[in-house]
Specification:
By secondary structure, the chain is an alpha/beta fold. Helices cover about 35% and strands about 15% of the residues. The chain has 2 domains: about 240 residues, UDP-N-acetylmuramoyl-L-alanine:D-glutamate ligase; about 150 residues, Mur ligase, C-terminal domain (Protein-Tyrosine Phosphatase, Chain A, Alpha-Beta Complex). An 11-stranded mixed β-sheet has the order 4-3-2-5-1-6-7-8-9-10-11, sandwiched between helices. It has a 6-stranded mixed β-sheet with strand order 12-13-17-14-15-16.
Length: about 500
């Protein structure tokens, strides 16, 4: 499908400059600008089916698994759908946010999409000014979302899986009409915009549940009862019957799940999962069985930490409700095993196909000759709020219960997050702490972060001015470390080492 308007040719650096120029508008909670831009482009989003995923944590991984599962499912004629994926933010390059057929779009395609979005915005605002109306403040995320939707139409995709950037009600992805939606869970994040209670935040995310859309409510929506009531109330108001995903054993629930036992709701369709093998080392596999209203899928495996069980299960349910039938089990197993989750318990160095060294010392091998890590272990995780840090730490404890044997910690955090809460959780979970500052203008200074660790009774071994300096020093010394605290921390370390 060709663009409905004439689009100026721009380069990739020019596209990046266009996006950075829109950062001055910050976050504008409104959909009219995106809707009008899409109308200007001839509603490219209506040329394919859309799946939308919201949630405080887990939504990126769930989106990735959903896209991989859908792409692997064969049609009656043996063909496979062309699936697009939209996630945010990127770890290294803007192009990572938009995938078609399992690969990031090219810089040329990205630049074309941004040019189309910017031209649509220019035309919309010119028309508003002629009518005596105030022009829209078109944000970076508005441009990126419209660019992605336009690119996917031009690529001829069959399905696009869209991750909400923030909330749901006013998120730019909500300018579309999804066929199926999911909410992975709720935590206290972006409170200045979404609200200062779990219930208020739940209402913003529940707004993506609309009449005529299939819906999966993930594990993190089950408790407390007041949160679940918000989601079920929205479903009832819109005449939607959701599928409720719950762990068969509460011990398999992700770390951010709120205390309490989920209610039964016997009148609603349920899905569940049970972990049949828990990873015992980095590189070891997670294995689970998922039971949905359509089928039971046994033996789904991936070399991932245990918290991914909830995300895999949510993706399985979401793919099912979109397709309306059970899944090809062999295609499902292959998709789950092969799906990458960049920045989520991501082993950059020191891992092997079989195992990895989970201690601070490098591993040379053992008497059996089994392959072991021969360089320092470096793991990054994009956990960036207390809920996701809890989930990450639960996986660390599974792999290595003894704090003294864990890698060092390299931490950098954004100042607009719950920095004290993040530090409180991380401070005593690693034998040595190093702090630094990412290149983000929102980052807290390394010295201020060090002071917060000191307030928790932990003296950082090093205070580095920036991530490149920290990574160079630690890797040169042969130090194994885990880097976390913000998405930008994970991205900068990955960009240096991958």
């Amino acid at each position: 499908m060709a663009s409905a308007i004439s689009v100026p040719d721009i380069t990739y650096p020019e596209a990046i400059a266009t996006l950075k120029g829109a950062l001055r508008f910050g976050i504008c909670p409104m959909l009219e600008s995106v809707e009008d831009m899409l109308e200007e482009l001839g509603r490219p989003d209506r040329s394919y089916r859309i799946v939308q995923i919201a949630g405080t944590n887990g939504k990126t991984s769930t989106a990735r698994y959903t896209a991989a599962i859908l792409a692997a499912q064969p049609a009656a004629d043996g063909s496979h759908p062309l699936v697009a994926l939209y996630t945010s933010p990127e770890l290294v390059s803007y192009t990572e946010r938009m995938e078609v057929g399992g690969s990031p779009v090219s810089e040329a395609a990205f630049a074309h999409g941004v040019s189309a979005a910017a031209e649509a915005g220019r035309r919309v605002n010119a028309r508003r000014e002629r009518a005596g109306e105030r022009p829209y403040d078109i944000t970076e995320f508005d441009l990126l979302t419209v660019a992605a939707l336009e690119m996917y139409a031009e690529a001829g995709v069959d399905v696009a899986v869209l991750e909400c950037g923030m909330g749901g009600r006013w998120d730019a992805t909500s300018a579309t009409s999804p066929a199926a939606v999911a909410v992975t869970g709720v935590g206290l994040d972006h409170m200045r915009i979404l609200g200062d209670t779990l219930e208020k935040i739940s209402a913003e995310k529940a707004a993506i549940i609309r009449r005529g859309r299939s819906c999966v409510l993930g594990v993190g929506t089950a408790t407390p009862d007041s949160v679940e009531d918000v989601f079920l109330g929205q479903c009832d108001h819109e005449g939607v019957v959701p599928v409720l995903l719950r762990p068969a054993d509460l011990a398999d629930a992700p770390g951010e799940m709120h205390p309490g036992v989920p209610r039964a709701h016997a009148d609603l369709p349920h899905a569940s999962y049970v972990v049949t093998h828990r990873p015992s080392s980095l590189g070891d596999v997670l294995t689970l069985d998922v039971t949905t209203p359509h089928a039971t899928y046994a033996g789904l495996s991936a070399a991932k930490p245990i918290y991914q069980a909830a995300n895999v299960s949510c993706a399985v349910c979401l793919a099912e409700v979109l397709l309306g039938h059970d899944l090809d089990v062999e295609a499902l197993r292959s998709a789950v095993a092969a799906c990458p989750t960049p920045g989520r318990f991501d082993v950059l160095t020191g891992g092997t196909d079989h195992t990895a060294c989970a201690s601070r010392a490098t591993c040379e091998g053992d008497a059996s000759g089994a392959p072991r890590a021969t360089e320092p272990l470096v793991v990054v995780d994009a956990c960036h709020n207390p809920q996701s840090v809890q989930t990450f730490l639960a996986s660390v404890r599974e792999v290595e219960p003894d704090v003294s044997k864990r890698p060092d910690l390299l931490c950098a955090v954004l100042a607009d997050k719950d920095v004290a809460g993040i530090v409180r959780l991380l401070a005593h979970e690693f034998p040595v702490v190093h702090v630094t500052r990412t290149a983000s203008p929102r980052a807290i200074s390394a010295e201020a972060l060090a002071d917060l660790f000191r307030a928790e009774g932990v003296e950082p071994a090093d205070v580095y001015p920036d991530v490149p300096t920290a990574v160079k020093a630690l890797t040169s010394a042969g130090t194994s470390f885990v880097a976390c605290g913000s998405i930008t921390t994970a991205g900068e370390v990955a960009g240096l080492l991958r």
